[in-house]
Amino acid sequence: MASAVLSAEEFGCPVCLETLRDPATLPCGHTYCLPCIQKHWDKGEAKQVFSCPQCRQTFTPRPVLARSTLLVEAMEKLRVRGGHEDTPRSISSAPPSMPVCSPNGSMDARPCEGGIYPQLPVSSWVCPEHQRPLELFCRDDQESVCAACRDVGHKGHQVVTPEAERTERQRQLVEMQANTQRRIQERERELQLLSIAARAHKVSLQALQRDAGEVFAELLRGVELTGSQVQELLGAHEAAEGSRAEGQIHRLEQEQAQLRRMDEELRRLAQMQDPVCFLKNFLALDAPLLDGGGRMVGSNTEVAMFEGVRAVLEELKDQHQGLCKAYLARIFRIVNDSSAQAQMPMTSDTEVEPRQGGGGAEQRAESASQRPVVNEAAVNVLQNPEPKTRDELLKFRFEPTLDPNTAYRHLRLSEENRKATLRAETQTYPEHPDRFLFWRQRPKTFSSI
After folding, report:
1. Does residue 348 register a pLDDT over 70?
2. What CA–CA distance (Å, rounded) separates 117 from 105?
3. Which residues form the RING-type domain (predicted)?
4. What DSSP line would sit under 101-128, residue for residue?
5. pLDDT digits (tens, 9 = 90+) for 93-126
6. Cα–Cα distances in Å, from 328 out to 112, 232, 323, 385?
7. How many Cβ atoms from other residues are within 10 Å of residue 54's Cβ?
8. Mean pLDDT of 203-225
9. 19 in Cβ contact with 77 (< 8 Å)
10. Neighbour-count burial for 245-257, b at 16+ CB within 10 Å, e otherwise
């Protein structure tokens, strides 16, 4: 059984660590499974590097390998002989593991149960050039070397023992572990604080929405109250003017009746022939007291009052619209500035992840460029009356041209940059400092028709 195991180890593939399958021999003399060496060389096809995994000898061009018939027959005999054993055990049945290093520094090729790394051949711990143990480490080239390599290829380099390098690397490892644990704790605290801040922010926003609704409701009540007071004032004025007009009508009717009686007396007096009687009746005649008739309804004073009230109402409407637009623009700026600051990437002294884009100034410029700007035309549309006819609609006709230098990376532009479609895949746009990074927007230019 011992001889069978020895033969199995001799016919093992150094790449897959199993019994050779379709064995092929390289020009250097080492033998591998044909699929294993082909796959190994396929990885270096782009660099045109074809070397032996054991002795590192390179071959140019790539050798054409074939299955070794002699080795195939030998492996077949080995399997037949191993099949008569009571407890056959092939190389591939051993659990893969790393070679065990004994305290005295020697290599123990016995497999470790439960290992997670494949077992490496013992030849990997021997210098392929000088066939001497790799008992030194070159810090300049960051590789293990033997004593002969130190005196030849690594002469003048900083060469130390693996134990000394392990001590230094162990110290760095402890620092990295401590740093990683610290960052984990920091992220846990940040997550807790962020969760609390998110809940507080949501509560604050809801309270702000309620306050805004109450403010605008109060403004509406104030406007309605002002409107009702104006209506009441105009109604009282209408009632007063109506009463005054009725009084004028009654007085004018009385004056008209007096004047008619006076006219009758004057006609009767004019028909008297006796001069003495005429003079007596004329001197006894009383002329009616007539006033100026008062202010007539619909006079210039009333017309001026109508025009004055209408002018004040138009001025109130214009000022109200301007005030609403001004405060709406201020609210937009405050909210957009807060959103832009919240979208700026968080940086810390321990961050090592690369960030997209340029430097800090460019990043701030990009963040500023991505803010949704208040469109004055859009605000004016809210205030201006809606067009009804085709001619009125044609006054607002325009053809927007979308800017490809600022389009969001998931927006696809088409139809000569006049159509934007939101896509799941990232579009291949060139880098530009004005490009939107967070908002699915893109500025547009307008061409008048």
Report:
1. no
2. 20
3. 13-56
4. EPTTS-EE-PPPTT--SPPPPGGGGB-T
5. 334 434 444 444 444 444 444 444 444 444 457 8
6. 73, 32, 8, 19
7. 19
8. 92
9. no
10. eeeeeeeeeeeee
